Amino acid sequence: MIDRSISTTLRLAKERLFFSETAALDAELLLMMALGVSRTVVLTWPNRQLAEQELQVFEGFLIRREAGEPVAYITGHKHFWTLELAVTKDVLIPRPDTEIIVEWVTKSYIDNELKVAELGTGSGAIALAIASEKPNWQITATDISKNALNIAKKNADYNEIKNVEFKQSSWCDNLKDGKFDVVISNPPYIAPGDPHLCLGDVSFEPREALVSSQGGYADLFRIIEQAKSILIPGGALVLEHGFEQGKKVREYLTSKGYDEVETLMDLSGHERTTVAIYPHKE
């Protein structure tokens, strides 16, 4: 009799996914999706035999993963902060390094009624995570993509988050009537032609959310310039950027009159997020 147990199926899948640093976890998540069960079931019922149809569904997922497709796009969801988020190929996959922004903002401000804008919200990860921690804050999340905004709204509904308003906008263009205490963005910052665009998960993600002209700085610089028109005096601008871009971003912020410019490190110890204060006086 052929062994179709969960334990054997996972072992064989892990061997096939040897190229992934998280092969065991990938296999578990894909099997959970194929069986429609929780991880607890997968881990506590190792001898459960899989039906032929279940094996076929799992095989389809494995083939997609072997081709390099990210697990998040195969399963259609990704965990971020304390939230479960729907993701599609219309949005970037939320990454742990981006949680640094959520942590910095929520720990730096204790005000009960802050106004925060996130530019280029994608799946809504940053805006929704902050909103979940600060239900009395007013969060505005923008994106130029209608498809991305629909996903972000879906994620807000699923996580029962009510204090986020969604607007279609190219960066600050449609926010000119608002004044915000904090403006946040994780914009495109990869240079056209960068070899990393052909590697790993990035090769499956939307190019318009990844690539920026001027060596990857065009959108960062545009946001730095525009944000001054929507920040209150003393408000903070928080920007995620490439690990080699910190110095140039700091210099540009300083040249545009921002104060208290500092860069935060990511989980690998690389420069990843720069924070600056819009001064009280020009």
Topology (SSEs and partners):
Layout: H1 6-16, H2 23-35, H3 39-44, H4 52-66, H5 71-75, E1 77-80, E2 83-86, H6 99-108, E3 115-119, H7 125-133, E4 138-143, H8 146-158, E5 164-168, E6 180-185, H9 218-227, E7 231-240, H10 246-255, E8 259-265, E9 271-277
Parallel strand pairs: 3-4, 3-6, 4-5, 6-7
Antiparallel strand pairs: 1-2, 7-9, 8-9
Helix pairs in contact: 1-2, 2-4, 6-7
Protein described:
The protein folds into 2 domains: 62 residues, Helicase, Ruva Protein, domain 3 (Orthogonal Bundle), CATH 1.10.8.10; 198 residues, 3-Layer(aba) Sandwich (Rossmann fold). 37% of the residues are buried. Helices cover 36% and strands 19% of the residues. It has 282 residues and is an alpha/beta fold. A 7-stranded mixed sheet has the order 5-4-3-6-7-9-8, sandwiched between helices.
Helix content: 25-40%
What does the radius of gyration come to?
21 Å
Instruction: Name the beta content range.
Output: 15-25%
Can you identify the CATH superfamily of the largest domain? Answer: Vaccinia Virus protein VP39
How many beta-strand segments? 9
The CATH architecture of the largest domain can be named as 3-Layer(aba) Sandwich
Our count of helices gives: 10
User: Which CATH class of the largest domain applies here?
Assistant: Alpha Beta
